[in-house]
Design brief:
The complex is a heterodimer of chains A (453) and B (459). With 453 residues, chain A is of the alpha+beta class. Chain A has ten helices and 21 strands. In chain A, the strands form four sheets. In chain A, strands 1, 2, 3, 4, 5, 6 and 7 form a seven-stranded antiparallel sheet that branches. Chain A is globular, with a radius of gyration of 24 Å. Chain B has 459 residues and is an alpha+beta fold. Classes of the chains: A alpha+beta (453), B alpha+beta (459). Chains A and B meet through strand 2, strand 3, helix 2, strand 6 and helix 9 of A and strand 2, strand 3, helix 2, helix 3 and strand 5 of B.
């Protein structure tokens, strides 16, 4: 489907929507291409090249917003979209006002598309993947196998066009590399993950990824357990950003309004320690979730969510903002044409402090350094804030790494954890972006967590 | 969905540059979802997913490409693009497809698209009211309803041509109980391979009250103590322990490359003799059931472990090649956007001979996990974890006070030997299982079991 065909489809759809009695309406059209190669034992293992498109329609009928989507842009879909959106608007009985947005005067132009990236051939990406596997296997004889070694790239374009005259488009691309080596230690195996995401292929430094992955996996060899009890803990940057991602929903005004977050009536109050500042930055240069406008077409801006422990604002879309009598923060999310409008952060991160990881460990003196968590999707309850998670890491004695530990759990409550951050490191690192944003954090020193061993 | 001559043309184009197997998977899916929060229908969306995935194999290598456009030109282009990834010399093949009609073991009475959205909304409202009215402490209830009508067509260069239609319906209830300072949750999510007739056997009010009961119980629960202890895991969704701890490691996806602790162990004792475990996609109208898998092979009942002895794995075509074993109807994918791989269907531990009362009475001090949350596993190391959604301490052989915030962790190969009592009443629970080929509906199940010792993560 060419862009002209999208325009033609949109015109037909808008005409049908108006005739069906919709007062305002909008289409969200997304086109995407992706490429992935994984290698195994010096050969291409899996290879995929994909093209997708989809169109989400929403419109106001009798004062309520109805949604429908399709992946086929034909005559039948025009009728189906209008009919389904209308039925869905009728079924809905939420009185919250939803609006189709007229648009802002100004959108900050940020470049999320690297023109050089599409010129990189598939052979080059395959070569990188093969090189990464070979280097990882040669790096250390204890590296017995590679569980995953792959390169992925994508490019996407979205259009939001509505009956109020809004007509926006945005395109982005990117490339990822992921490596998971398997290290054998007697009859026990250990894995680790190293990844890199960027818009520039030159940032994919195979040697760095191999060193990182192999060193991480080797460091766990001979891991034991620690005694059950309470410990001071340093969460390394990857673990801290995973936790932030898991609990990001508590900052959503929608979740707060629906009683699913304990941050109700907390705006302006202290929710974290003095050392904690959390920023949502949609305009971050090279940010993998950067965007000039949100899912409703509201212009995005950079803002502090938590400033030195104080909750400055929740994340809003137009509906929640209207309900709270504030302005939208430009965090309406539409991860796909098949989703309704929700709220999510963009590039969301804990502001860096001054100490590096070694200094954090020295400051802690005795405790645990946690470098891997498992079970975040099940062992972390975003509504209560409680978490109890399988973990790996190192025991720290007198400020130094003493030995690796595994088969332990760490347990606590995220709301309490924000208050218990004693020190924030300077080693900020972003994780792999998902539909819900891209999350980053430096390593964090936590006063106390419960540990089972 | 696509004419036979076009399929034949696409499959031979896919092999034109040297592959030894080609396959096309065409999908047309209609979904409906309704969500109610705060007593109001908050979110309703309907949609149509449509596309095709083309797969080519050459030895152990696999190439996958997909597109939304299922017209002849686009399919031929996609096939050629995939073929170019192989570039193993040219060949001109004529492929002739033979249409096969799978036997339908899962009767559907009411196709979702023929049921009015208002009727669906009524079910949602009934569940909402029952959950909200359960207790004054229930602060918030979210009820979700979803149905899927997936039509698929699979054809391959071995001549297979088969179509199927899968209809599934599911209800979700999440209750939040609050005392003003703390929130606790309860969840139920009954689902079936059925249309709207699911509500003739599933009472929304029962599940709604259950979700609220768990939330209120957990609100008044103490923190679970941490440490190693014996654990009793109840039936139903408790089966997630086998699914995570062992099921994933028995998928060919992990076994073929030796990335599983159970690789190369067929015929060996990998569990206590109390353990017999089965994966069965043929049980009529169950959530994880299928007529044919996503490679077009009829699903099977597979005894994975019999009295502790490893009998077989769940095998797909590609990994089966590496293992020198035939696929056994275990290949699944979320949609045309995913190449299929070996996955579970309805996986459960078979009933044993112990009485529930005896199992509880056998423990002086331990944990009773009445309801489980989700979990995950690293198949290479066998390390698993899963959350206890509703737990109680056991003291002197009796169920004592409720506790919250517990997680169970361990290694699959070790826990299988520690299952030393197995009850008689097997039940199943519904879940969505995420892995390489996306998220697929699966059932987990077991009778009540005792694990002699496991690490419990609490506070």
């Amino acid at each position: 489907m060419k862009t002209m065909e999208f325009r033609e489809f949109k015109d037909k759809l808008f005409k049908a929507a108006r005739e069906a009695g919709f007062t305002d309406f909008e289409v969200y059209y997304a086109l995407g291409e992706s490429f992935k190669v994984t290698v195994y034992q010096k050969e291409i293992d899996n290879y995929s090249v994909n093209v997708t498109k989809g169109l989400g329609f929403r419109g106001i009928y009798n004062g309520r917003m109805g949604y429908a989507y399709t992946e086929i842009l034909d005559e039948e879909s025009v009728n189906l979209l209008v009919k389904n959106a209308k039925t869905n608007a009728i079924v809905k009985d939420n009185d919250d006002l939803e609006v189709i947005y007229r648009g802002d005067d100004k959108y900050i132009d940020i470049n999320c598309f690297n023109e050089e990236l599409p010129k990189v051939g598939e052979n080059e990406k395959i070569r990188l993947a093969l090189e990464m596997e070979t280097m990882a296997l040669e790096k250390d004889k204890r590296v017995k196998d590679i569980k995953y070694c792959g390169i992925q790239s994508f490019e996407g374009n979205i259009n939001i066009v509505n009956s109020k005259g809004l007509d926006l488009s945005h395109r982005a691309n990117g490339i990822y590399a992921v490596l998971i080596p398997v290290v054998q230690d007697g009859d026990r195996a250990t894995t680790s993950v190293a990844f890199k995401s960027s818009r520039n292929i030159n940032d994919i430094k195979v040697e760095d990824l191999v060193n990182e992955a192999v060193e991480k996996a080797l460091a766990y060899i001979g891991a034991g357990v620690v005694k059950t009890g309470k410990y001071k803990v340093v969460l390394n940057n990857e673990v801290a950003s995973d936790l932030l991602e898991t609990y990001a929903d508590i900052f959503s005004a929608d979740k707060v309004q629906k009683g699913m977050s304990l941050l109700k009536n907390k705006t302006g109050k202290i929710v974290g320690s003095k050392t904690l500042t959390i920023i949502d930055d949609p305009l971050l240069e090279n940010g993998m979730a950067s965007t000039p406008f949100d899912g409703e077409g509201v212009a995005c801006h950079t803002k502090e969510i938590v400033r030195e422990g104080q909750l400055v604002t929740l994340l809003h879309n137009l509906r929640t903002a209207l309900k709270d009598g504030v302005k939208s923060t430009g965090n309406a999310s539409r991860p796909s044409y098949s989703s309704t409008i929700d709220i999510s952060p963009t590039n969301f991160y804990v502001k860096a402090g001054e100490l590096d990881l070694e200094e954090l460990l020295r400051k802690m003196q005795n405790g645990l350094l946690i470098t891997e968590l498992q079970g975040l999707h099940s062992g972390a309850n975003t509504i209560s804030g409680d978490f109890s998670l399988a973990a790996k890491g190192f025991e720290i004695l007198n400020g130094e790494i003493s030995r690796p530990i595994e088969q332990i759990t760490i347990a606590g409550n995220f709301y309490q954890l924000m208050l218990d951050i004693e020190e924030v490191g300077n080693d900020i690192k972003f994780g792999i972006p998902s539909g819900g944003g891209c999350f980053g954090s430096p390593s964090l020193l936590i006063r106390e967590l419960s540990v089972a061993g | 969905m696509v004419a036979r001559d076009i399929l034949e043309e696409v499959l031979s184009r896919a092999l034109s540059l040297g592959g030894d197997f080609s396959e096309i998977f065409v999908e047309d899916r209609v979904i409906n979802s309704i969500r109610m929060v705060n007593g109001k229908i908050d979110d309703v969306i309907s949609g149509r997913d449509h596309g095709a995935g083309i797969r080519i194999m050459k030895g152990y290598r696999s190439v996958y490409a997909y597109t939304n456009d299922t017209g002849r030109t686009a399919l031929l282009d996609t096939a050629y693009k995939a073929a170019c990834a192989l570039k193993e010399g040219e060949q001109d093949l004529n492929i002739t497809l033979t249409e096969r009609i799978p036997s339908n073991i899962h009767q559907i009475l009411y196709v979702p698209s023929s049921v009015d959205n208002q009727k669906k909304a009524t079910i949602v409202k009934t569940a909402y009211k029952a959950a909200k009215d359960y207790a004054p402490e229930i602060l918030q209830v979210t009820v979700g309803y979803g149905d899927v009508d997936q039509k698929i067509l699979i054809a391959n260069s071995e001549g297979l041509l088969v179509e199927d239609r899968r209809v599934r319906t599911r209800l979700f209830i999440q209750s939040i109980a609050s005392d003003g300072n703390e929130n606790q949750t309860g969840f139920e999510g009954p689902g079936r391979y059925m249309g709207f007739e699911m509500f003739e056997i599933i009472d929304p009010e029962y599940y709604a009250k259950e979700a609220s009961r768990t939330a209120v119980t957990m609100l008044h629960a103490d923190l679970c103590p941490a440490g190693r202890m014996p654990v009793v895991i109840d039936n139903g969704f408790g089966g997630v322990i086998f699914h995570e701890a062992c099921g994933h490691a028995l998928e060919a996806t992990s076994v073929a490359k030796g990335h599983s602790v159970f690789a190369g162990k067929i015929g060996e004792k990998i569990a206590s003799e109390k353990v017999t475990a089965i994966d069965d996609g043929t049980i009529p109208n169950l959530w994880g059931s299928i007529n044919i898998d996503d490679e077009g092979i009829p699903t099977q009942r597979k005894v994975l472990i019999e009295n502790g002895i490893l009998k077989t794995y769940m095998i797909d075509k590609l990994n089966g090649r590496r293992m020198g074993m035939a696929p056994n109807g275990s290949s699944r994918r979320q949609s045309y956007k995913y190449a299929p791989t070996s996955r579970m269907t309805n996986t459960y531990i078979a009933p044993g001979s112990d009485e529930n009362d005896d199992i509880i009475a056998s423990i002086p001090e331990g944990l009773y996990a009445k309801k489980m949350g989700g979990g995950s596993v690293n198949p290479v190391t066998g390390e698993f974890n899963f959350a206890v959604a509703e737990g109680y301490l056991i003291r002197n052989g009796k169920v004592n006070k409720p506790v919250r915030g517990a997680t169970l962790i361990g290694k699959g190969s070790e826990i299988l030997f520690k299952i030393d009592m197995v009850g008689k009443d097997m039940q199943m629970g519904q879940g969505m299982c995420g892995s390489l080929s996306g998220s697929v509906p699966t059932n987990v199940g077991q009778p009540m079991i005792r694990v002699s010792e496991i690490t419990v993560g609490g506070r």
